[in-house]
Amino acid sequence: MSPRRAALAWLATALVAPALAQAQTDTPAFDRPGIAFSTGTLPRGGFAWEQGLPDFERDRSGGVRSTGYSAATTLRLGLTDRLELQLSGSPYNYARQRGGGQRDSARGAGDTALALKLALPSRHEKFSWGLLGSAAVATGDRDFSDGRDQYALGATVAYDFDDATSGSLYLNVERSGGADAWTFSPSLSRAFGARWGGYVEAGWTRTERAPDTGVAGAGVTFMATPTIQLDASLDAGLNDAAPDWQGGIGVSVFFD
């Protein structure tokens, strides 16, 4: 990474954030948008649907321009007040490549993942933390799956600086095909009134036998109703190995 990009990455990590603190205190925090997941879980019997409309990724390398869209879906069910079950996948994906005198496109489904999320106990009102363990099965179409099962364990720790501002740190390790990938993401979020919120974040991933990637960006959320959240996010790549742009728009709905 060049000194200039390293400086930008350092500056971004000094600011960062996961999904914003909810304006409505009676609605659990959603995991969309952002790299990290929220530290909270759904109450027992609670259900949430989080949907990308869509999420996207864009990159230009070697004269080839690649664009991908994904209808990323996560379904969450509260098993207890501190433990929830998640089912996630991308039932529809579209990828397109242009350049070098060729045009290729593909459509299909992605892999399916099952996860358990645990909100860990805390003695301090302003501090929270949680764990998310997941297993992804290679059920996707060839163009949207590497054909290998994936296992991951992530942790998010968060601290509320005041009623409107919070910061968090996210760490995740993923194993697939005998190789490990580590992701670290700091973030900073703030509520702007009762319905609007925003965040900034950065993320760095180191994968065995592959180049490191770094991104930084921001997002906004809007509570359309006390139980429906709309979101938009955009991250920029900080090095050549990372996608030039990634992000999306989405909606999250809580059913009590």
Summarize the structure.
This protein is mainly β and 256 residues long. 4% of the residues lie in helices and 59% in strands. The protein has one helix at residues 3-13; strands at residues 47-61, 64-70, 73-78, 83-89, 93-99, 102-108, 112-120, 127-137, 150-160, 165-176, 179-192, 196-207, 213-225, 228-237, 245-255.
Notable features of this structure?
single chain; 256 residues; mainly beta; 59% strand; disordered N terminus
Topology diagram in text:
Elements: H1 3-13, E1 47-61, E2 64-70, E3 73-78, E4 83-89, E5 93-99, E6 102-108, E7 112-120, E8 127-137, E9 150-160, E10 165-176, E11 179-192, E12 196-207, E13 213-225, E14 228-237, E15 245-255
Structural notes for this entry:
The protein is mainly β. The protein contains one helix and 15 strands; from the N terminus they run H-E-E-E-E-E-E-E-E-E-E-E-E-E-E-E. It has one helix at residues 3-13; strands at 47-61, 64-70, 73-78, 83-89, 93-99, 102-108, 112-120, 127-137, 150-160, 165-176, 179-192, 196-207, 213-225, 228-237, 245-255. It has a twelve-stranded antiparallel β-barrel. It starts with a helix and ends with a strand.
The percent of residues in helical segments reads under 10%
Helix and strand composition category: mainly beta
Low-confidence stretches: 1-25
Strand order of the largest sheet: 1-3-4-7-8-9-10-11-12-13-14-15
Overall mean pLDDT stands at 90
Figure out the total of helices.
1
What can be said about the biggest beta sheet? 12 strands, antiparallel, barrel
Large-scale geometry: globular
Got a strand count?
15
- Gyration radius (Cα, Å) is 18 Å
How widely separated are the two ends? Answer: 47 Å
Question: What amount of the residues lies in strands?
Answer: over 45%
Order of helices and strands: HEEEEEEEEEEEEEEE
